[in-house]
Amino acid sequence: MSYKYQPEGSHFINGRYVEDTTGAVIDVIYPATGEVIAKVHEATEAVIEEAITSALAAQQAWAAMSGTERGRILRRAADIIRERNHELSVLETHDTGKPLQETLVADATSGADALEYFGGLAGSLTGEHIALGDGNFAYTMREALGLCVGIGAWNYPTQIACWKGAPALACGNAMIFKPSETTPLSALKVAEILHEAGLPAGLYNVVQGTGKVGAPLVTDPRVNKVSLTGSVPTGRKVYAAAAEGMKHVTMELGGKSPLVVFDDADLDSAVSGAINANFYSTGQVCSNGTRVFVQKGIKEAFLNRLAERLQGAKMGDPLDESVNFGPMVSAAQLAIVEGYIAKGKEEGARLVAGGNRLDQEGYWIEPTVFADVTDDMVVAREEIFGPVMCVLDFDDEDEVLARANDTEFGLAAGVFTADLARGHRMVAGFEAGTCFINSYNDAPVEVPFGGSKMSGVGRENAKTAINHYSELKSVFVRLDACEAAF
Ligand SMILES: NC(=O)c1ccc[n+]([C@@H]2O[C@H](COP(=O)([O-])OP(=O)(O)OC[C@H]3O[C@@H](n4cnc5c(N)ncnc54)[C@H](O)[C@@H]3O)[C@@H](O)[C@H]2O)c1
Ligand SMILES: O=CCc1c[nH]cn1
C-alpha cells in the first residue's frame, strides 16, 4: 500500500534516502482526520552507525572551507525553501495538523530565516588578537565542535530542524537530527533541500525514532554536542546523559509562562496578546503565556472581550486558508489536554469558554478558557501544552511579579501596560529567558530564544547561538626568549 506522503526512505543519510525495514514501524498520522499518511521505520543500530560515520567523514573538510563558502550553501537552501514554501507548508500541516494559514508564514519561512541569517554570519566568524605587552600576544581561533546531535519536539518540526541545523553548519559542524517520532516528515525535506543547495553528503543526516534512538546518539562518545527541544523530564535525562561525556548542550524545554495585563493596557491589544499566547498552533507552543494575570479592574471587560474574539476562531479543514485553529497533534496529546480540563473543573476553576472535544475524526478540542484560577491549582502549575488559557486575578505590581515568578519554569513572560516604565520594571523582575512588552510569542531569528530555571540551558538564534556551536582555542605567542626557573 502506498501512502499520501510516503518518503523515499525513512532516513536521510550521506546525501540520500536510506531504508532499513527491520526497524520498528512508526505510523505518521494526519491529526485532522486520523488518516495514516506515511509509515517510517525507527533507526536500527546499523542506521545510526551509518549516520555517525558519514557525518564524521564529511565534517573536517566542511570546517576547512571558508565561512563564506559554507554560508553560500545555507543561503541557497533558504532560497529553495522560500520557493517551495507552499508545498512545504502543506506537508507541515499534514505532519502537525497546524492550519495552512499558520504554516505558510511561521514554519518553513522561519526555517529559511535561520538558514539565511546563519548563512550570512558564517563568513564573519572570527577570533581576536590580544596584545600582552613586550611584543607578546595571543589570539583566539573559533573552531567547530565536530558532530552535533539535534533532537526535536513535534510542534515546530521544520523550524526546529533549521534552528539547530543552520548555526551548527555555519560553524563548520556536522549534524545528525532526530525529529520527534510524532512528526517525522518535514526534517527529511530540510535535509533534501540542503543537499540540493550543495551541502556535501553526510553533513546533515536525519534519523527517525523515539527516545530509543535519541539516547544512544546522546551518549555516543563521537558526538560533541547535543541540542534538545522537548519537555523538562526529557531534558533532565538528556542533559544528565550528555554531562557524563562532558558534551556541550542546548536545552530548549517547557514552560508555564505568565502574561500580565494591567488595567491601563489597550484592551484589544491585550486580548490579542492572550490569544497569541494560548491558541496559536492550538496552544502547542513552548513559550505560551498560559497563566494570564488580569488586574481586577478590567477582569470582566477582558473576559467579555475575549469571549467575543473567540467567536472568530475557525476550526475546519486545516488546508482551507480561512481556518485558524487546528487539531491537537495526536490522540495522546488530546487525552492529556482533556485530563487537564477535567482537573481544572474539579479544582473549581470557572470554565468560561470551550472545554469540549469535537465529535468527529481527528484530535479536535475547542479553545478553552478558565477564569478564577488560583496559583495552587494544577492547571496553573503544570505545562498543559494545549489550548487552555488560565485567567488569574491580581491587585498590584509587586504581588503579581512574585506570583508570576513562583514557578520552576522560566521560559517566557509578557506584560501589557500603557506605562512603559512599568513594562520595563516588570521584565527586569521576570525570571524568564524571553520577555515581551505589549506583544507575545514573537520569535524572529535575530533575537536570542531560550529559557531560564528548568526551562533550559543556552539560547537558540541570534549571534549568541554561534557560541553554542563553536568553541574558542586560545594561542599564546612569545616573541622574546622563553625563560624558566631552572
Ligand atoms: N523551549 C523550546 O524552544 C521548545 C520548543 C518546542 C517544544 N518545547 C517543549 O517540548 C515539549 C513537547 O514536545 P515533545 O512532547 O515532543 O517532548 P518530549 O520531551 O516528549 O520529546 C522531545 C524529543 O526527545 C526525544 N526523546 C525522548 N526521550 C529521549 C531520551 N531519553 N534521549 C534522547 N531523546 C529522547 C523524543 O523522541 C523527541 O524527539 C513541551 O514541553 C514543550 O514546551 C520546547
Ligand atoms: O515552540 C517553541 C518555539 C517557538 C516559539 N514561537 C515559535 N516557535
From TrEMBL:
The keyword Transmembrane does not apply. Pfam families: Aldedh (PF00171). GO terms for molecular function: betaine-aldehyde dehydrogenase (NAD+) activity; metal ion binding. SUPFAM superfamilies: ALDH-like (SSF53720). InterPro entries: Ald_DH/histidinol_DH (IPR016161), Ald_DH_C (IPR016163), Ald_DH_CS_CYS (IPR016160), Ald_DH_CS_GLU (IPR029510), Ald_DH_N (IPR016162), Aldehyde_DH_dom (IPR015590), BADH (IPR011264). The active site is at E252. It is an enzyme of class 1 (oxidoreductase). Its EC number is 1.2.1.8. Residues 18-475 form the Aldehyde dehydrogenase domain. Coiled coil: none annotated. Keywords: Metal-binding, NAD, Oxidation, Oxidoreductase, Potassium. GO terms for biological process: glycine betaine biosynthetic process from choline. Belongs to the aldehyde dehydrogenase family. This is Betaine-aldehyde dehydrogenase.
